[in-house]
Amino acid sequence: MKRLIPRTLLTPAVLSIAIISIVPLLITLYYSLVKFSLLAPGDHPFHGLENFYFFFTDGAFVPALHNTFVLMFSVMLITVLGGAALGLLINEAFPGRAIVRVLLISPFLVMPAVNSLMWKNMLLNPIYGLFAQVSHLLGQTPIDWLSEYPLLSIVMMVSWQWLPFACLIFMTALQSMDREQLEAAGMDGANYLQQLRYLYIPHLGRAVSVVLMIEMIFLLSVFAEIFTTTGGGPGFDTTTITFMIYQQALQSYDIGAASAGALFAVLLANIAAFFLMRVIGKNLAK
Questions:
Q1: Inter-residue contact 265 to 277 (CB < 8 Å)
Q2: Contact 178, 162 (CB under 8 A)
Q3: Residue 16's pLDDT band (boundaries 50, 70, 90)?
Q4: What percent of the chain has pLDDT above 90?
Q5: Cα separation of 82 and 96, whole Å?
Q6: Are 125 and 132 in contact (CB under 8 A)?
Q7: Please, which pLDDT band fits residue 74 given cuts at 50, 70 and 90?
């Protein structure tokens, strides 16, 4: 009886979550197994695994998979290192620290499409962008970033937006450090680098795991920055798995192939989440 009442009360919530998450997945699975093109509406005959074969043998698949991993791991590396450095920098009290923290966090509140337009028009524009003006001041030829280094440009945009998130997590973790332990280390003669090696970095281990897990899930679905600035090009230089699914669904109107790609993306995210959860579990168990 003690267990029946809590389980009964939880049942509507569990069923709601199951319906919201499982029903779309089942619909996607169905579309991936039938021939469904918006250009030929009507019956949807069984198509077997042809949609998966078509998606995986598309000329854009290998570059898209490569770009997805490069984008994801580059942003994770930049945000973890940069976020930890910023968190340590503003961890100690100084005048105006509250204002600095708000300014640091504010990029995370900007919508991805706005972030993309700001970088495209105000920073990376080869004629009147900030980077072009700096190049003119230094006597250098401005770089057309979106044409010459398109994937690096996307990495910079996404990193700028996700850096405050990592910084916020690390700041919270640093606030929970044992101050007496730090003072004792200082009294024993440990310099800052030694404190960083043996106290700060081990303490940030769990926070790093959390940042990596959350960022990995969201970075697999980066879309607005690519759609707004490069449109997946030049060529396939900035095409990712997410953008390829969009192209199949809303440019080629092939819902079957897009559904097959979506299932592959779900599988990819679950594999990544599985390994990260194991890492986090080990960190929490320490």
A1: no
A2: no
A3: confident
A4: 12
A5: 21
A6: yes
A7: very high
Q: State the angle between helix axes of 150-175 and 205-219 in degrees (0 to 180), rounded to the nearest 10.
A: 150
Residue 2 has pLDDT above 80, yes or no: no
Closest CA to 196 of 185, 211, 187: 185
Residue 101 backbone dihedrals phi, psi, to 5 degrees: -65, -45
Calpha distance 217→243 (Å, rounded)? 16
d(CA 286, CA 284): 5
The structure tokens 């004792």 sit at: 184
Cβ(278)–Cβ(69) below 8 Å: no
Give the helix/strand (H/E) hosting 28.
helix 4-32
Provide the greatest CA pair distance for the chain: 79
Percent of the chain with pLDDT over 70: 97
Long-range pairs, 174-183, Cβ under 8 A, ≥24: 174/87, 174/88, 174/91, 174/200, 174/203, 174/204, 175/91, 177/203
**Tokens 């310099």 identify what position?**
191
Burial of residue 205 (CB within 10 Å: 0-12, 13-18, 19+) is middle
Distance CA 265, CA 277 (A): 18
If one compares 153 and 216, the residue with the highest pLDDT of the two is: 153
What is the Cα–Cα distance from 246 to 86, expressed in whole angstroms?
A: 36
pTM for the full predicted model: 0.83
What residues contact residue 87 under an 8 Å CB cut-off, 6+ apart?
167, 170, 171, 173, 174
- The predicted model gives 192-203 an average pLDDT of 81
- Whole-number pLDDT of residue 285: 60
Least confident of 182-186, 208-212, 243-247, 255-259: 182-186
Cβ count near 76 (within 10 Å): 19
Q: Which amino acid is at 90?
A: I
d(CA 169, CA 179): 19
Q: At what angle do helices 150-175 and 97-105 cross, to 10 degrees?
A: 140
